[in-house]
Design a protein that fits this description.
2 copies of one chain form a homodimer.
Chain A lengths: L2 E8 L7 H17 L5 E3 L17 H14 L7 E10 L1 E10 L2 E7 L11 H4 L8 E4 L2 E7 L6 H9 L4 E6 L7 H16 L2 E6 L1 E4 L2 E4 L3 E3 L5 E4 L6 E8 L4 E5 L9 H19 L5 E4 L4 H14 L4 E5 L7 H14 L2 E4 L3 H15 L6 H22 L2 E2 L5 H6 L20 H15 L4 H5 L19 H12 L5 H6 L4 H13 L1 H5 L26
Parallel strand pairs in A: 1-2, 2-3, 7-8, 8-9, 16-17, 16-19, 17-18
Antiparallel strand pairs in A: 1-14, 3-4, 4-5, 6-7, 9-12, 10-11, 12-13, 14-15
Helix pairs in contact in A: 1-2, 6-7, 7-8, 7-12, 9-10
EC number (chains A, B): 6.3.5.1
Protein name (chains A, B): Glutamine-dependent NAD(+) synthetase
GO molecular function (chains A, B): ATP binding; glutaminase activity; NAD+ synthase (glutamine-hydrolyzing) activity; NAD+ synthase activity
Chain lengths: 538, 538
């Protein structure tokens, strides 16, 4: 018995970029062979199409392109075997992995477990496979699995029963703040119940509202985690499998910084902004900088993602804007070295009010006038985005999105919302952590009471419960699917709970028109939480 | 052998309104018993929850409420049996129909075929049933089916094999312009292949981006369509089944107006606006009236849906607005008798341009300035919506949505977009047809060349191919999933086809933030067509 060496390609394979993905697979295979001396390389799930390709999978020309790339790739993979993910069309479409070896496609495995919950719609696109696949390489029998296969017991058990000494799982498993722990628990269980080691390789990168975190893993057959790859970084990982002990060993994997969950989440937010902007070919970003914590954190993320020279911040004051806001916004922009503009909106606001005066005669000021300020800012920022080609970031957080404390076509303007899935209390946590590194976020911004500054001496708590209470209720209601009665029974104020839940329901229309943003919780607004706008249920 | 009489309840059962839906079922059962002398009444699919309840089905409290309504309803259904649709929770959740008879739930059938394509996500929510259900009433054996069950061959065949003399299908089948013909073809096939008559009852009403058209059907066992109920109208339909001949007879069904597809589509658009506005508790609507055909048709639909006194039209001219636009907008508003305002936007536009001058210095005017006009209008309309509580209708059509010929946060502002799924050529067809009835749309508006009037002497054809060519390409690309090569091979200009397809791909980000609107084609933007924004595929 000897050992055999293989490589896990923890890389980004962008959605739709079939040809570029095939080229990247070829390059990485060459590198794994030459530099790592690997005899096998495994790429993430749906390597060639990217994940999730969504309804591109319903275009015959897209499926054909994936098939062509696979066929052209096979003879170009030389001196190494490669496991490549791709959609496979045989009358119906399968989520597949093929082994390219000896210049040809040796076999194609079809994913057996298709997730059709939370963010996944795989039963919309794929037919489930019905057979395991165990293949031999360097005298070792390897069981092939794709992502969801490992979340059910049967596929691993069947592969083990068919003699697999090692399970190889290729994945496109999205990040959320609890996912790494869940994955480890699951993999430990599958390893021990089948007495088999597992090599788990995951995609990296931002794709619309999903983040893929990498975090590839090696698990011994006794359930011990032998190695963890860093999150949100692309890397080629070498692994050695020892046939005698049926154990895995990581070769020169970098250290990971797992102690602090802030590190991982922040890295995900940065990656999300970077990938959304770059994959959509924007030259940079701009955002409204208000002197509040949301835009301050968004600015820090943008600079970390793109560099200061690709970021523009715009302060758009009114009579309600405090000196503190003006001062701190400017201070942060200067500290970070970004382009900074001050565009007062009083004239614009007055021209709206003047134009509307004939139709608003006799009606008292209300939320309308507050929204006019927010929308004047939105129009200015969109004009700057149009003129400069920089993408507008929206700065809203999950607490606001939940209860509708945001103006549609106002501060909700923007192509991407980095904080969309962060509750306000998490915005504070992450901001404190980020500020602690190098003062990228001013201390005064973190410590001031939150305010939209749309009227005199306004604070968020005029309209909303304190954020720690609000967020606790929201998390129970949204992530926990708890009812009002459940939440009240847990000790929260009856009237507050009912008011918050009502706000969540009636603001579905705003969320439906909101920008995408990176998912970091176990239930994000968007594809993961599909609620009717029109609903009699309260 | 005798005959037996039953009723089909072609009605709206709004999503989430569990208690109101149970009350309505009780009232209709009483009416069917007393006025129609029916011994059975059948309600549409998921009667109690409404369809589609989407992720409300993941709330335990919602499922519990449906169960409670079913239990409370059973003893209140007296002197008649009732087939009621509802989610049924037994560890997992099923899409179910129960027979309420003799004061109790006699049995519960679980839908066997779960659609998970186009607009449907039923495998996200439901587990499939595995058994047919044939029940006896008045000596007749009736096979129970739910919607998708009839789209597959097995469930009907199993029910027939179990002795069903009649198939009863309860449905929530969404409208599109081809669906009625498809349904009839399918029902004829199932009837003849099983030699069994079919009674098909369908939901009515608008639910976010879906329209349910009713159009209930009776099909003889030889495949002959015995009766068609009108589309988009609520009604209680009496049916007699003759045991000797195993044939169905409609009792006093109203005449239907099937000759002209415009009638049905227009009725759907009117129903869509009515239901969206009323179910979401708005007092009325407002819209920007430009003098162009899209807003003119939208205004006519709004008035037909809600009455003139619940509709406000606003003309917002600039120097680029033609006299024709000013004249025709006013003429239409007066003809229809709606509240009408003229709010020039020159001052607002100038205040934006002035504020932006320092940052735009040295840059030539471009699309930015056109968008500023559109966004100034959007902000004005949203202010009027906020102040008056009237819902803003967006007036864009499918051709514009497809190629991005619309301003995000500008003319795309609005809670509901009645023409969202109508190609521009269909907007013309329907407008001509509607104008022909009573001149609700001015002839000059229909005949003028289309223009956004955002710069001097602009027409749509400065930027776009002629609409008949554009729409033909779009329909092949979107509904037909054809590739550029396919479309070019069909005789369209190479460069035009590639340009149009590119525009469709790169404008996904706009569509993602667009208002919902009623689906009328076989592939509508939104839940039916799920494309990545970020994509390397062109």
């Amino acid at each position: 018995m000897t050992s055999f060496r293989f490589a896990l390609a923890q890389f980004d394979f962008p959605v739709g970029a079939t040809h570029a993905n095939a080229l990247r697979a070829k390059e990485l295979a060459d590198k794994a062979r030459d530099q790592l001396k690997a005899s096998l390389i495994a790429f993430p799930e749906l390597t060639l199409s990217g994940y999730p390709p969504e309804d591109l999978l319903q275009r015959p020309s897209f499926l054909e392109a994936c098939a062509v790339e696979l066929s052209s790739l096979a003879p170009r993979i030389e001196g190494i075997a490669a496991v490549v993910g791709h959609p496979d069309t045989r009358g119906e479409v399968f989520n597949a992995a093929s082994l390219l070896r000896g210049g040809a496609v040796e076999w194609t495995y079809h994913k057996q477990a298709l997730p059709n919950y939370t963010v996944f719609d795989e039963k919309r696109y794929f037919r489930a496979g019905e057979h395991s696949r165990v293949f031999e390489i360097e005298g070792v029998r390897v069981g092939m699995l794709i992502c969801e296969d490992i979340w059910e017991a049967e596929p691993a058990a069947h592969a083990a029963a068919a003699g697999a000494e090692l399970l190889l799982v290729i994945n496109a498993s999205p990040y959320d703040s609890r996912q790494a722990a869940t994955r480890e628990r699951l993999l430990r269980q599958r390893a021990t119940e089948n007495d088999v080691a597992i090599a788990y390789v995951n995609l990296v990168g931002g794709q619309d509202d999903l983040l893929f975190d990498g975090g590839s893993l090696l698990v011994q057959r006794n359930g011990h985690i032998a190695a963890r790859a860093p999150s949100f970084e692309e890397m080629l990982l070498a692994v050695e499998f020892d046939s005698a002990s049926r154990s895995l060993k990581a070769i020169d994997w970098p250290e990971t910084d797992e102690g602090d969950p802030h590190v991982v989440m922040y890295a995900g937010l940065v990656r999300g902004v970077h990938d959304y902007v770059c994959k959509n070919h924007f030259s940079g970003v701009l955002l409204g900088l208000s002197g509040g914590i949301d835009s301050a954190l968004t600015l820090a993320i943008a600079v970390d993602a793109l560099g200061a020279d690709r970021v523009t911040a715009v302060m758009m004051p009114t009579r309600y804007t405090s000196d503190l806001s003006l001062h701190e916004a400017k201070a942060q922009a200067e500290h970070l070295g970004v382009e900074y503009h001050v565009l007062p909106i009083e004239n614009i606001y007055e021209s709206f009010v003047g134009t509307l005066a004939p139709v608003f005669e006799g009606r008292a000021p209300d939320i309308t006038e507050e929204n006019l300020q927010s929308r004047s800012r939105g129009v200015l920022l969109m004009a700057m985005s149009n003129k400069t080609g920089r993408l507008l970031l929206s700065t809203g957080n999950k607490s606001e999105m939940a209860v509708g404390y945001a103006t549609l076509y106002g501060d909700m303007c923007g192509a991407y919302a980095p904080l969309k899935d962060l509750y306000k209390t998490v915005v504070y946590d992450i901001s404190r952590w980020r500020a602690g590194i190098d003062g990228a976020i001013p201390k005064a911004v973190i410590e001031r009471p939150p305010s939209a500054e749309l009227r005199h001496e306004q604070t968020d708590q005029d309209s909303l419960p304190p954020y720690d209470e609000l967020d606790a209720i929201l998390e129970r209601f949204i992530e926990g699917e708890q009812s009002a009665e459940d939440i009240i029974a847990a000790g929260y104020d009856d009237a507050t709970v009912r008011r918050v839940i009502r706000m969540v329901f009636v603001n579905e229309f705003k969320r439906r028109q909101s920008a995408p943003g990176p998912r970091v919780t176990t239930k994000a607004f968007g594809r993961e939480r599909r609620y009717p706008i029109t609903s009699g249920w309260r």
